[in-house]
TrEMBL record:
Pfam families referenced in this protein's UniProt entry, alphabetically: Peptidase_M23
SUPFAM superfamilies recorded: Duplicated hybrid motif (SSF51261)
Lineage: Bacteria, Pseudomonadati, Pseudomonadota, Betaproteobacteria, Burkholderiales
UniProt keywords, alphabetically: Hydrolase, Membrane, Metal-binding, Metalloprotease, Protease, Transmembrane, Transmembrane helix, Zinc
The name this protein goes by in its record: M23 family metallopeptidase
The keyword Lyase is assigned to this record: no
Transmembrane stretches, start-end: 21-44
Entry keyword annotation includes Cell inner membrane: no
Originating species: Roseateles oligotrophus
Cofactor(s) recorded in Swiss-Prot or TrEMBL: Zn(2+)
Domain M23ase beta-sheet core: start-end pairs: 317-411
Amino acid sequence: MIEVKVALARAEAFAAKHPRALTGTVVGLLTGFAITAFGIAPLAPDARDLPQRMLAETVQTNDLEAQLTALAEHQIGLSRSELTRSSDTVESLFKRLGAFDPVAAQFLRNDPLARRTLQGRAGKSVQLTADASGVVQAMVVRFPAEKSEQQATHFSRLSITREGKAFVSKLETAPLQAQIRLGSGTIQSSLFAATDEARIPDAIASQMADMFSGEIDFHRELRKGDRFSVVYESLTADGESINWDSAAGRVIAGEFVNNGRSHSAVWFKDSVTGKGNFYAFDGQSKRRAFLASPMEFSRITSGFAMRFHPILQSWRQHLGVDYGAPTGTPVRTVGDGAVEFAGWQNGFGNVVHVRHNGDRTTVYAHLSRIDVKKGQRIEQGQKIGAVGATGWATGPHLHFEFRVKGSHQDPRVIARASEAVTLPNYARNQFRQTVASVQSQLSVAQSMDGGVSGAD
């Protein structure tokens, strides 16, 4: 009994000296100190007169003072994550992360790797671990791979760790990992508003619009109450979800109910050619010779019709389609072909002409940047430049034209009427197996309208 009183006195002294420690743990430890255990043979109804025997045993524990000392030395780690901002300083970043460490801040300002990483583009993921006093123990910064050819498959990781009183930094490249996610939603105002509500990335929403663009005009035919379900890949860096334009996941399968009519599609990769494409569940290709739009998804500001020219101040036939988008938004070619012209051309400013099969040509004007050269072979969907306001333009937008034997045509009509890519006969058995596996996933997605779930 005296030993128990001494132990309790030591515990109270420890609690007074270390108010932040988990003193509840000490109480748990004391329950095993100098305890006498009793075991009594069970009494069955027909064994009441059997002899009974009492056993007593003292349970030995480790020295209590050693346990209290070890507990006092234990450091509690606090971990928080943030995204960098263009206006960030080391101090403002630390403040959002709940850290106060002048030594760590000085290291970040002086270390070449840390300075170059944190002063670069905004939106990098920062994970910081500090002790209970806010002293930094470790930092990890994750961002798109520095080499452009690796950005779709890898990420860069800057690790900063405390070693004694100093810090050490290390920069490395690691592969991105894919997780399968399910999502669904209902259109109330726009596609992106619905996908935002369902926490589906914009890149996935753009792919879904592309997937069904041959059947649904997302600029004109979207209806309130339309529903969609999607199965897609979400890329992660060290298990952390990312939302980088350079490393977007891929849509695996989707269903869109537009104005009461259901449209379904699945991504299928040909094991022989190595090329992938979207197909309806009956094997009909969703890909046509020409995409419906030279941008993943944007707002049409002027269609193929008569309009009042904002610069010439007169009514004229608009021989193309204008897409409003911020400067720098990527522009892609709508079909396979060769670059016929790439450079400056009067009112078009920076412009690219692409020659396709069948005496067909597409024109991409007012670009802020040109990423291709004359004579270069390019594939459907390849980036050829970026939106700008060069030439005769009142603001940033893309002017897009489609010409057949020199005659201007409505690009959206041409895209819908263009020939489809067919599924090879040798791939049909494998395709049917793929469809069967995604149909069950889409059924689960449909039951969670307005949400998203993930699975490894």
